[in-house]
Amino acid sequence: MSWKTFGGTDAEWDDLVTSLNATSPFSRSGWSRYKEGGRWSTIRCVFSTDRGTTSAAQILSFSFLNVITVAWIPGGICGALEIDAEQLIRFVSNTTGSKAVYCRVSFHQATDNESPSTLTTLKWKKAASFLGAEETFVVSKTGGSLADKSNLTSNWARNLNRGLKHNFLTSIWDHPDPSEIHDLFTEMVAYKKSHGPAEIPSLESLRKLLGSMNNELLFVQTRDNSGKLIAIRAAFIVGSFAWDALAAANEEARKCYASYVCAWNLLEVLNERGVERYDLAGIDPLENEGVFNFKKGFGGKRVNYLGEWEAARPSIARHLAGALISRMG
User: Fold this and answer.
1) In this structure, are 127 and 222 located in the same domain?
2) Across the chain, which distance is largest between two alpha carbons, in Å?
3) CB within 10 Å: which end of the chain, N or C, has fewer?
4) Dihedral-angle region of residue 260 (phi above 0 means left; psi in -120 to 50 means alpha; beta otherwise)
């Protein structure tokens, strides 16, 4: 029983993680293509027993000053959770030739009573700081539909009806323009300077994301009566699971509630495509209260992630690399 390098194609990798019931877009080959080219390179590996392949991991790695290798698994370990930290560290060390290795795994499934103790027994430690969110809202199909208005909070439903009165054009965006998206984010951030934190993805990163994850991305756009883009919302789709990917709305969209119309239309399209669960990709009620309240309005279940766990050899590398990777994202 051991970890071995996966030597198949991107398509074969995606088929494998699908067979292991992996739902995270960060386990897909497209995400590794998106992250590669900068500091990260990709290592794909599988864990096999006499029952065949039981687990798999897509590792993003980089070496710092030729001293330590940082291994990050943003999509979590696919398949069986019972993975010994030291075995995975040893595999990364043998693969990279690095004597010092730090490994962090992000699990985006809901936590339970058993998994934390299982990971601790397997010599993983809960990360002291997080790259992503610790909790989220998950909208699930109820009554045969993911887009069920009865689940919406009264305020969210009221704002949706206000937005629908404007008759703006909302539709699936089959060929999203990264320049338009970048401009919309720029408008949004300029408007939100005093309304909460916001970031502008670079034009280069948008182009790379659209090119790498095109097969998994669904975009919905809202335009005003002049044809100007005023709101977008996008989701990754992996089987019957969707994950919030991008969202932006300018001042006009916020004043006329177009962001609600755009988000609701995305939910309807996800429902039409057979999605049964939609993860709103993290919440932060303290630092980003506005986004928290917007996501809360969908009426989804508030979920605590199993979260981020780490291991290292030697142990001192956990403190050094943990601080470094938390600044990098």
Assistant:
1) no
2) 63
3) C
4) alpha
Which tokens hold the place of 60? 């993003």
Alpha helices in the chain (DSSP H): 10-19, 29-35, 85-96, 115-121, 154-164, 178-191, 203-212, 251-255, 258-272, 289-296, 316-328
Euclidean distance between CA atoms 207 and 182, whole angstroms: 10
> For the chain, how many residues are written?
329
CA dihedral defined by 118, 123, 126, 129, rounded to 10 degrees? -160
Of 257, 275, 293, the last residue of a domain is 275
Tell which residue, 293, 238, 240, 231, has the closest CA to residue 264: 231
Give domain status of residue 236, yes or no: yes
Do 9 and 122 sit in the same domain of this protein? yes
Q: Spell out the residues 6+ positions from residue 180 whose beta carbon is closer than 8 angstroms to its own.
A: 229
Which amino acid makes up residue 23? T
- Residue range 132-173, pLDDT digits in tens: 788 999 999 988 899 999 999 999 999 999 999 998 999 999
Residues 129 and 27 in one domain: yes
> Do 74 and 178 sit in the same domain of this protein?
no
| Domain of 11, in residue numbers | 2-135+305-328
Does residue 248 fall inside a structural domain? yes
Beta pairing class for 78-79 and 52-64: antiparallel
In order of 21, 24, 114, 159, 298, the CA distances from 282 in angstroms are: 21, 13, 22, 22, 13
Environment class of 30 (CB within 10 Å of its CB; exposed 0-12, middle 13-18, buried 19+): buried
In tens, the pLDDT along 26-71 reads 999 999 999 987 788 999 999 988 778 899 999 999 887 777 899 9
**DSSP helix/strand/coil, 290:** helix
Asked whether residue 282 is domain-assigned, the answer is: no
Q: Are residues 219 and 175 in the same domain?
A: yes
Inside any domain, residue 208: yes
- Give how many domains the chain has, as a whole number: 2
Tokens of 192: 């939100």
Q: Do 17 and 66 sit in the same domain of this protein?
A: yes
Cis peptide before 314 (omega within 30 of 0): yes
Residue in the structure block whose two tokens are 């897509």: 58
